[in-house]
Each structure stands twice: as C-alpha cells, then as structure tokens.
Amino acid sequence: MSDPINAQFRPRIFSGIQPSGGLTLGNYLGALKRFAALQGGEAETIYCIVDLHAITVWQEPEQLRARIREAAAAFMAAGVDPAQSILFNQSQVSAHAEMAWLFNTVARVGWMYRMTQFKDKAGKNSENASLGLLAYPALMAADILTYQATAVPVGEDQKQHLELTRDIAAKFNHDYGVTHFPITEPLIEGVATRVMSLRDGSRKMSKSDPSDASRINLTDDADTIATKIRKARTDADPLPGSMEGLKDRPEAKNLVNIYAALADETPDEVLARFEGQGFGAFKPALAEVAVSALSPITARMSDYMADPAQIDRTLADGADRAAAIALPILERTKEIMGLLRTRN
Ligand code: AMP
Ligand code: TRP
C-alpha cells in the first residue's frame, strides 16, 4: 500500500549492493535480475554499488577496488543497462555521505541498536565494531532519500533497514513540518526474496558464508554449479504436487523456489511437472536450468572485466548523472534544517 504522500514525488527506484565479496545466486535472484526487469517502466531506475557501506567492516584496499569493478560488471551482465539506468559507486557522489550526517541527527541511537544486521555483523564484541557499522542504516536512508526514491527493490533481509528509512523520512517531515521526503515503499516480491544456503535450509545464501558449497557464485563455471547442486542438502522423499506439501521441508522448498525463479515459473508449476519424482531426477534438471541462466551472465561478466577502464568511464558517467539529481535535494534539505548558505 502506497503512502498518500508519495503521489507528490516522481516515481523513482533506487537500490544498492555492497561490493564486499563475490556476488551470489541470492544477489542475482533477490536483486540484480529484478533491477534489470524494472528498467523501462514508469519509474526512473538508479542503481548503486555501495562502497561506503562495504568499508564499515575491514576491506583490503586493492581487493575493494577490484570488487567494485566486479560488481559493476555483474550489474551490467545481469541486464542493468547504463543507458536506461544510472549505475555508479556511492563514494563518487559526496551527497550520500553528507546526507548521512544530516540523518545521524534525525535517527535515534536506540533505532540503530535494534537492527538485526548490526547485531549479526558486530557479534559478541559490539563495543569493538566500527561506529560506521552502527550508523550504516542512516547512510542507507541517505542513499535512498537523497534521490527522493519512492520504491526500493531488495531481498527480505533488508526489510528492517527500509522500515528505518521510512521512520527517518517521517520524523524529518514531522519535525520540520514539510513533505520533503517520500515514505519509500519496499519492493520485496517474487519467490526468491530469500534464497537459502545449499547446505542449511535455515540460513540465507550469503557471500560471507565460510562454506563455498553453501552458495552459487556468479563466477562459478558450469561444472561447479552442477556439483554444488548435486551435493545440496535435501531429503529422501519424492516431490509433492504443490508447495503446500513442502511446508516442513526447507531445503526442498528452497531448490524448488530457485528453479521457479530461474525459469520464470511459479513453484506450483514446477511441482506439477516433478510430482512424485525424487531429487535424483530434480537436481540434474535444476542444474541445467541454473547453468543455462547463469552461464551467459558469467561470460558477459568476464567480457566487461576485461576492460576496467571502460567500467570506470561508465561509473563516472553514472556518478555525474546521479549527482545532478542528488545535489539540489541535498541543498534543499540543508536549507529546511536552517543551515546557512553563504556561497552559490
Ligand atoms: P548485499 O549482498 O548484502 O549487499 O545484498 C544486496 C542485495 O541482494 C539486497 O537487496 C539483498 O536483500 C539481496 N540478497 C542478498 N542475499 C540474498 C539472498 N540469499 N536471497 C535473496 N536476496 C538476497
Ligand atoms: N544494506 C543493503 C544490503 O546489505 C545495501 C544497500 C545500501 C542498499 N544502501 C541501499 C539497498 C539502498 C537498497 C537501497 O543489501
């Protein structure tokens, strides 16, 4: 349900991905594939490689630089077209960091401590986490609201951060008596908003999981993909005729959802075909679908990676276009807050 306030803003979609490791099938199905599909609609699409978020935990500088380019290659290989969308890296548009500071004064400390991602990433010794890791959601709100974005496609794990973005927008509008920020809608849709680990159906597939067998990386070759799917944890029962029957079988449910998302079918359509069959039949079929969906992406990614200078030019052009939208909104925000402007 869209907030009535949002009718005052032009439809604009914003989303971001951290360049903190190789991207996975979870990132592709939960984010990249949907980013590409949202292009060319009513809303302008802006996609960001959030390098300032990545450095909230330690990143080796040389490796970070490579991963930013790799993320850009993955966006484009997955179908994000820099001519139709704005594609850039966050640190090149200083409005993000500046807006984040303004939001640090709007958001409350207690909101930050409640974030489950902070608790997960900070672990037991949270006193030793970077201050940036705690403030991370204020920067994410800045990413979104510096463009007055009305909708944000993400996976399920980002729901809490988007609620906090809405809280910051509402508190700002309320405190200053304005309708300056939209109350951004999360777009968490489809069967692949939470792709689970191939080794443990209760954990999300993640680029930071120590076990490489738990995930499919966008850089995995066909043999590796097939092997990982063959070894994926499952049970010995045959597949039922509909998703109802998979309620208590998380690993089986995950593989069926992955198949459906890759093949652009519903999980029930997939099960209607495989009803009564076991994983001995299902897994090779899934591997085939996965390889035929992912191999062209992997190939395009390495083509893009072969020309880093071209990637840098694309990102620089994106940053210029992003800054042109962000700066007037940032300036207006400062003006609303009473920060004196002394130069033009
Ligand atoms: P991150 O890799 O944490 O920067 O996440 C980038 C985007 O991918 C976000 O929209 C996440 O919600 C999404 N994402 C990450 N892992 C998964 C997963 N296992 N299933 C679905 N979406 C995911
Ligand atoms: N926090 C998001 C993640 O880990 C990445 C992110 C940063 C983001 N800024 C954003 C996502 C703005 C959507 C919109 O996945």
Automatic annotation (TrEMBL):
The short motif 'HIGH' region is annotated over: 19-27
Where, subcellularly, is it found?
A: Cytoplasm
Query: What gene is this protein a product of?
Result: trpS
Q: What class of enzyme is it?
A: ligase
Provide the family line.
Answer: Belongs to the class-I aminoacyl-tRNA synthetase family.
What domain of life? Bacteria
What is the annotated signal peptide range for this record? Answer: none
The protein, known as: Tryptophan--tRNA ligase
Can you tell me which residues bind L-tryptophan? Answer: D143
Q: Which stretch carries the motif 'KMSKS' region?
A: 204-208
Subunit structure, per the record?
Homodimer.
The job of this chain, per UniProt, is described as: Catalyzes the attachment of tryptophan to tRNA(Trp).
Which HAMAP family is this protein grouped with?
Answer: Trp_tRNA_synth_B
GO biological process annotations for this chain's record?
Answer: tryptophanyl-tRNA aminoacylation
